[in-house]
Amino acid sequence: xxxxxxxxxxxxxxxxxxxxxxxxxxxxxxxxxxxxxxxxxxxxxxxxxxxxxxxxxxxxxxxxxxxxxxxxxxxxxxxxxxxxxxxxxxxxxxxxxxx
Length: 99
Hints:
This protein is mainly α and 99 residues long.
């Protein structure tokens, strides 16, 4: 089981591939972060945002997780509006979880 709450039905091949890759990263924390974001937003991303997302999926799990959670500085070349959306999604998701 992936944890995904979104079906890939109705998505084009590129979005289906990115959704799958979002849930099959390597470390569970990154799966949850990227998979949850993809479940909610993959259908609505523009082609340019999909390009940025594909670039981020090439980053090592630990580095990407640290960038999104704010534990590390994002290197030049990776900062983007999409990464800002991912950070906002992560922080909103954390705020919704019961303590």
